[in-house]
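Marked as duplicate of an earlier ticket. Keeping the data here for the record.
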Amino acid sequence: MGLSELIHRGQKSQPKPLRYLLQQQRLVFLLIGISISTLIFSISSYSSYSSNQSISSTTMYNSKIPTISREPSLAHRVNLGGKVPLGLKRKGLRIVVTGGAGFVGSHLVDRLIERGDSVIVVDNFFTGNKENVMHHFGNPRFELIRHDVVEPLLLEVDQIYHLACPASPVHYKYNPTNVVGTLNMLGLAKRVNARFLLTSTSEVYGDPLEHPQKETYWGNVNPIGVRSCYDEGKRVAETLAMDYHRGAGVEVRIARIFNTYGPRMCIDDGRVVSNFVAQALRKEPMTVYGDGKQTRSFQFVSDLVEGLMRLMEGEHVGPFNLGNPGEFTMLELAEVVQQTIDPNAKIEFRPNTEDDPHKRKPDISKAKEFLGWEPKVALRKGLPMMVQDFRQRIFGDHKDASSSTV
């Protein structure tokens, strides 16, 4: 190997001045870029934090909803109602409705599906009917489980609407399953940290000595009467709900439902509105028990569903009376049915049933104040929609098929 070759290789191994300067500049540029990025990120974060703080302060200042002691779970921090910000889609909840194939439950399911939630209906079809929810078959956000809530059930859900319980005398005297089902569903709510709504009843007031009935009234119930399996069963259900709320931290809501009517009611369930409508359509005498002067208040099913949803999404435990304060005697109700169906419909008087309340009218001041709710549908407006549904089911008159959905 010659001397000239060694000198040439030695020259290649030494860095050139220009390359060395470029390498040093590259390092400087990198450090400058990192510094600028850090500065921009810090300014952006501070701006976002200040904006959120401003919005939060304005919201707290303008809000009329009282503060609560418990922070709501993640499922309830999403936007559950009202307007959704532009460009954002409301997060749907996973909700179970026990008794969801029944009269009230099926209308509630319609509203929840329409709102964008995923709904699981649990029903043993003792009083429910698949036809009430079959229009949701094929919807990926709808599930139907045939199950009796007196047996435990494991599901992962955000909310539980517990409606499963026979509500008419004909059915609850035959199969009183109130307490065990409520206990099982409260256990589920505790395990999965779900919010739980109990549909109680105005029957907890019994044959009231206070009129109208406020939520603070403790009732006048015969604990061993023929109706006690329902009356006392619902009172125990409320007790269990409050014990789970106080002792286990379950978020519960309690609704005391007054007489409700509308499409999809059971035709022969023994309740006064369905009795009168079915009898008048069949040209049978309308049976009035006692002297017909006992009073009831009747709310349309869509009003009730609205109240239940507002209660569930609100921050108040209750109980809340959900009913229409418009008060009718049984004879006045019979007259409205006559005017709606058949002016020549006859009335037949029969001996009154045991422990039948003489007066029933809700005081809904609490629901108005805390839920912003009151019924909108008057009896003379809602009854014709129920009559159309009953006519279709009794006589197969399909021209009124659209009336089954409110």
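See parent ticket for discussion. The CA atoms of residues 78 and 387 lie 40 Å apart.
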